[in-house]
Structure formats: structure tokens, C-alpha cells
Amino acid sequence: MSTPPPHPRLRLFDLPLDVIDLQGTLDLLGGWLIDPARTPHTVVTLNPEIIVQSRSHPEFAGAVQDADLVTADGVGIVYAARQLRGEDVPRAPGFDIVKGLMEQHGAELRVFFLGAKPGVAEAAAHNAAREYGVTVAGIHHGYFGPEEDRRVAELVAQSGATLLLTAMGAGRQEVFNQEWRGVLNVPVMIGCGGVIDVLAGTAELAPAWTRKLGVEWVWRVAGDRKRWNRAPRLLHFVRLVGAEKRRKG
Ligand code: UDP
């Protein structure tokens, strides 16, 4: 771990949460990106899914605990921070971070696109290069087992990437970045769920109004049958926050 960031850090369910907004995040990551030391850093954009899963998967919890930066991805985390800590935490969602970095750094950014179904990361890389002028350091799909982790991590290391987008589903992506950070050796590694799909155009970004209100998950759950089973998990999260609040008195 590098020097602690200059912003407050809360604890939510035994996980860290940095009180930092989007611009603060972009400034911090920008500094990491241009540092000639190339110190590896991991970024987690915390969402209810990760909190719920981390309670039964200690390795997920460990990956979040050891991350260099943990931002609030959405309104669920803002709600939990208000309920449990009485704090208003700003959001810095994964997609906005990735887009902001690409806009600010353009061709200086060497991006490795890791994740999603075969072919999707290629389309994402193509679009990002066209739209933001980023340099594509490498591409790999996200459907491989743990026995292939080292091979993929070495591929990333050899690419000389400065930004690694790991989009292999909540939990798996955070654990991969944290476990292999020494081999990956990328200045900024971010677990960013469906971001590669959005960049590729295979998933639509939630409409602006839902993003403004911080409720894009409502749109995603409603619009995607595969995600319908997640609605009860979100209710579970709300109940979990209530139970934690009572426990803390
Ligand atoms: N994904 C992947 N490998 C896997 C599972 C998922 O690369 O083993 C990709 C998936 O194709 C999608 C992204 O991870 O691009 C996010 O997947 P999903 O929406 O299921 O996960 P979430 O982050 O919402 O849990």
C-alpha cells in the first residue's frame, strides 16, 4: 500500500469507504498515472453487491480492505453511509471515473481492457481509441478460471499499461486486481463491472436522469431479466443496513 490518501476514510460493514468526489478521484488517479515510479494502485467502486458478497467471501472483503481507493459507486452506498455514519459521501461511479480519465489523459493513457465476453473488449477498445484517443495497451476477455490468472496477469504486465480496466463481475474483478497487483504492476487498476460493455455499446449507459438521481440500478434491474434476481438482494442490503444500525445503537 502506498501513502494514505489525503481525504477522510470511513468504515462501512468493516470495509473502507473514501470520502472523495469524482473530481478528487480524477485528480488523485491522475497523479498516480503520471508518477514515473509506476507504483501499482487498486481502485474499488463500492456498491451494495460487493458489501453483501463480502460478508460471505472473506477474500472479497480482503480485496476491498487492501485497496488504495474505495469510492461510493452509487446511491446504495450513499444511503448506507448516511444511515450508519451520519455522513454525506459524494459519489464517484466507475463509469464516470473511466470516462473522466480518458477525457483528461487521451493518448497518454495506455489502457488494458480486461473482461466481458470475447469480442466485447475489442469493441470497447476500438470505441475508446476513436472517441478519446487513448492508446490500447492490450485486450483480453474475462472468461477464464483461476488457473489462468497468472498468464493473464503477465500479459497485462508485459503490455506496459498505465490503466487496467478489470470488468469480470463484482468480487472476482476486485480479488484479481488485489491478488495479482505485484505482477500486474499497473499504476491504476480499477474493477469496473459493466464498463467495458458500455464502452463497447453492448450495454447502454443508464439514462442521464437516473444517473443524476443516483438510481441507475433501478433502470438496470428493471431492463435486464438476468438482473431480476438482484432486486431481492438490494432489499436484503437495506435490511442489512437497518440491522447494522440497530446493532450499533
Ligand atoms: N464477466 C466476465 N467474466 C465472468 C463474469 C462476468 O468477464 O466470469 C463480465 C460480464 O461479461 C460483464 C461484466 O463482467 O461484462 C459485469 O458482469 P455482471 O453484470 O454479471 O457483474 P456485476 O459487476 O454487475 O456483478
UniProtKB/TrEMBL annotation:
Organism, as annotated: Deinococcus arenicola
Alphabetical list of InterPro entries matching this protein: WecG_TagA_CpsF
CDD domains, per database record: Glyco_transf_WecG_TagA (cd06533)
Keywords of this entry: Glycosyltransferase, Transferase
Protein name: WecB/TagA/CpsF family glycosyltransferase
Keyword Magnesium among record annotations: no
Keyword Protein biosynthesis listed: no
PANTHER family in the cross-refs: PTHR34136, UDP-N-ACETYL-D-MANNOSAMINURONIC ACID TRANSFERASE
